[in-house]
Amino acid sequence: MKIKLTLLLLLLFSSKLLLAQDEAFARKIVDTLSSRHFWGRGYTKHGVHKAEKYLAAQFKTIGLKPMDGKSFLQPFSYSVNTYPGKMNVAINGEPLIPGQDFIVSPESQGIKKAMQLEEQDSTHFVNVADRVMVVKENKLTWSAEQKAKDYIVIEVNKSLFKSKPASISINIKSKLIAKFKTANICGIVKGTSKPDSVIVYTAHYDHLGGMGRKTFFPGANDNASGVAQVLSLAKYYAAHPQPYTMAFILFSGEEIGLLGSKYFTEHPLIPLKSIRFLVNLDLEGTGIDGITVVNATIYPKEFNMLKQINNKDGLLAKVNSRGEAANSDHYFFSKNNVPAFYIYTLGGIKAYHDIYDISATLPMNKYNDIFTLLLKFNNALMNKQQ
Question: What was the pLDDT predicted at 163?
Answer without folding.
Answer: 87
